[in-house]
Inverse folding.
């Protein structure tokens, strides 16, 4: 019974063998020779869609939101490869018609654990964010589990004896145990934070176990005294949302004399003040961003600051966006040539002083940074600073003599 659309029914996998076409409104209560012969189904697709778009500018509404999705997409590698996307645990891929057929993966966000058995049993393999052209257990994955722990600041404690007894070793980073005294000595463990992969052999090789916070193991079975390498799982790319807190903006302004010209006319007629009617100076705008001393943002993470809030301030000339990257200078400077006009003459019996004055403005705005890593969010603050000195004018002072 086809509720919507039209489908092609194939006798064999990979779009092969005899077919039947199933269409909405044409239900088939009984198959004849095709009974119990159906192996593959695909919906028919429409031709290219024609779309006419009209922007209704008078109805414009603005909203801003950030969406983070932790997902895994499995692909069947065959002539007509199919894919499925999952964003939560899948205890049994049979229920998704996707059992024992995954040949490649793409992971977005937090890591996933793939198991050869249903209900998260069998041999596990771990896939962190990235694309995988092949998988270790090709066509042999039956369940998928999303790692939801906070993977920042991981810690695991290994114990030499069962039930967390004997010597212990506390680790918070990837470690090859063959270089110490704990190789093939572990019989139990506790995970304080994060999630870890435990390897049978050095350099991430051999069979593995996945250790997760809240799932302590008091006694190993066949894995007893076989642990040689451990590493913490890493979260997907960090997402950073930056919000300028314009209501907390602070400004300081000062004026500085950058040049001065004086002329004296002792006569009864006006005299030429200078042969130059203009004078040229250099003005500049410098933007910068400063992280807090306790920032937990890692090197290489980028985000954009929207500084369009300056658009109503004619004295400030900055771009709409400022890119910040942890580990870089996070400073942007621009300069321009500014000409100011000078008086052509000095009145009779007058001393004329012309000062060229630069107006220097500094604006400081707190920036709220919302940092999302996997399923966990935290907030910290930084500061955006704009120093502008491209407003130059002249001041005249006349003294009778």
């Amino acid at each position: 019974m086809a509720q919507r659309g039209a489908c092609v029914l194939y006798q064999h996998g990979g779009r092969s063998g005899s077919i039947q076409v199933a269409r909405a409104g044409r239900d088939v209560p009984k198959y004849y020779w095709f009974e119990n012969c159906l192996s593959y189904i695909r919906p028919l697709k429409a031709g290219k869609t024609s779309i006419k778009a009209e922007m209704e500018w008078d109805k414009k509404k603005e909203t801003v939101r950030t969406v983070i999705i932790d997902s895994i997409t499995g692909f069947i590698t065959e002539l007509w490869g199919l894919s499925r996307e999952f964003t939560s645990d899948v205890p049994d891929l049979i229920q998704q018609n996707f059992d024992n057929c995954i040949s490649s993966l793409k992971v977005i966000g937090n890591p996933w654990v793939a198991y050869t058995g249903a209900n998260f049993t069998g041999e596990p393999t771990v896939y962190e964010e990235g694309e995988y052209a092949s998988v270790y257990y090709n066509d042999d994955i039956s369940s998928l589990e999303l790692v939801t722990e906070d993977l920042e600041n991981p810690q695991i404690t290994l114990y030499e004896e069962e039930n967390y007894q004997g010597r212990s070793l506390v680790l918070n980073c990837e470690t090859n145990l063959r270089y110490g005294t704990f190789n093939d000595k572990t019989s139990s463990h506790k995970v304080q934070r994060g999630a870890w992969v435990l390897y049978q052999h050095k350099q991430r090789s051999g069979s593995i176990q996945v250790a997760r916070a809240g799932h302590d193991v008091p006694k190993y079975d066949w894995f007893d005294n076989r642990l040689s390498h451990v590493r913490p799982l890493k979260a997907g790319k960090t997402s950073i949302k930056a919000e300028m807190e314009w209501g907390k903006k602070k400004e300081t302004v000062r004026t500085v004399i950058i040049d001065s010209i004086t002329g004296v006319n002792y006569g009864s007629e006006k005299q030429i003040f200078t042969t130059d009617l203009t004078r040229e100076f250099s003005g500049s705008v410098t933007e910068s961003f400063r992280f807090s001393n306790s920032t937990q943002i890692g090197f290489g993470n980028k985000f954009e600051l929207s500084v369009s809030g300056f658009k109503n301030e004619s004295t400030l000339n900055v771009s709409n966006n400022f890119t910040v990257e942890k580990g870089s200078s996070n400073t942007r400077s621009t300069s321009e040539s500014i000409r100011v006009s000078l008086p052509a003459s000095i009145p009779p019996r007058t001393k004329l002083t012309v000062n060229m004055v630069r107006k220097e403005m500094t604006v400081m705005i707190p920036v709220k940074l919302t940092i999302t890593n996997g399923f966990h969010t935290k907030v910290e603050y930084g500061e955006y600073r704009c120093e502008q000195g491209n407003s130059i004018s002249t001041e005249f002072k006349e003294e009778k003599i």
The CA atoms of residues 242 and 369 lie 5 Å apart.
